[in-house]
């Protein structure tokens, strides 16, 4: 019996995530960041001076992925690390002026990506889908050990 991909939420969600990532990637590249860096930028636009651990908790990625992404962001002049005043092992992460200046254009690019992928949806359909996605994410988080 063949696996029916169109009936698998796991398969479809992975495809949807790739679609949103591709839609943002082309727009983000023009601005000087990657789609994978976008969640970190959002967290730092909301609150600078977070530790890597705090970012890990908020963005929910693997430690190695976070470390590599932050290294690339530092290399590309988007973040700077400063010593933590109480914990010698930790560093606080701050945006550079370059990254702060990207905020409005980056958020606009993300909105454009969303609009492109929700083209043809009625407003209530989009709102329902977003609600269902949030609910599924909450369920997935409860499954994590």
From TrEMBL:
Family annotation (InterPro entries): HTH_MarR-typ, Tscrpt_reg_MarR-type_CS, WH-like_DNA-bd_sf, WH_DNA-bd_sf
Any one GO molecular function term: DNA-binding transcription factor activity
Listed PROSITE patterns: HTH_MARR_1 (PS01117), HTH_MARR_2 (PS50995)
One Pfam family recorded for the sequence: MarR
Span of domain HTH marR-type: 6-138
Protein's UniProt keywords contain Transmembrane: no
Keyword Ligase annotated: no
Keywords: DNA-binding, Transcription, Transcription regulation
Xref: PANTHER family: TRANSCRIPTIONAL REGULATOR, MARR, TRANSCRIPTIONAL REPRESSOR OF EMRAB OPERON
Protein name: MarR family transcriptional regulator
Originating species: Rhizobium daejeonense
